[in-house]
Design goal:
This protein is mostly beta strands. It folds into two domains: 78 residues, Roll (Chitinase A, domain 3), CATH 3.10.50; 49 residues, Thrombin, subunit H (Beta Barrel). Helices cover 8% and strands 40% of the residues. It has two helices and nine strands, in the order ββαβαββββββ. The strands form two sheets. Strands 1, 2, 3, 4 and 9 form a five-stranded antiparallel β-sheet that branches. Strand 6 and strand 7 form a beta hairpin. The longest helix is centred in the N-terminal third of the chain and has 7 residues. It starts with 7 loop residues before the first strand and ends with a strand.
């Protein structure tokens, strides 16, 4: 029986970058990934890749940035005054920080530069601009 849209499936996976760095895996998480194919619970390209797989089948998937977390957007790198950072937060490289947006929403970002006067925050997803490689094994169709 092959996987089709609407099936709840269980897959084992390992995600790596082109340099071989493992960024995620079902082994790290301690359990297979479960999702409903076509429900938008995982990236569309990942969903499409498992359609037609048979239980026990293994497949390698290469997702370009546009199929995954998008390309890096230089407009999402914001330089702000240190005075805009709450006094109780000491900005340092790599610090994850939540930034208020003009429309009232909040966005997660990472501090990428700190000077005496400014803090530069990258609001791009950490995986934006990266090619993602997956080794996927179909484990079960649950419904």
């Amino acid at each position: 029986m092959s996987i089709k849209k609407g099936d709840k499936v269980k897959v084992e996976y390992k995600g790596t970058l082109d340099d071989g760095t493992v960024f995620d895996s079902s082994k790290i998480r301690g359990m297979p990934l479960e999702f409903v194919v076509g429900a938008g619970q995982v990236m569309k390209a990942f969903e499409n890749a498992v359609i037609g797989m048979e239980i026990g089948e293994e497949k390698e998937i290469k997702l370009q940035p546009s199929q995954a977390y998008g390309v890096r957007n230089p407009q999402l790198i914001k330089k702000i005054s240190r005075g805009q950072i709450p006094k109780e937060i000491e900005p340092k490289l790599g610090l994850e920080i939540t930034v208020g947006q003009p429309n009232g929403t909040k966005a997660a970002g990472r501090v990428v530069e700190v000077t005496d006067e400014t803090v530069t925050i990258d609001l791009n997803h950490p995986m934006a601009g990266k090619v993602l490689n997956y080794k996927v094994k179909a484990v079960d169709i649950l419904s």
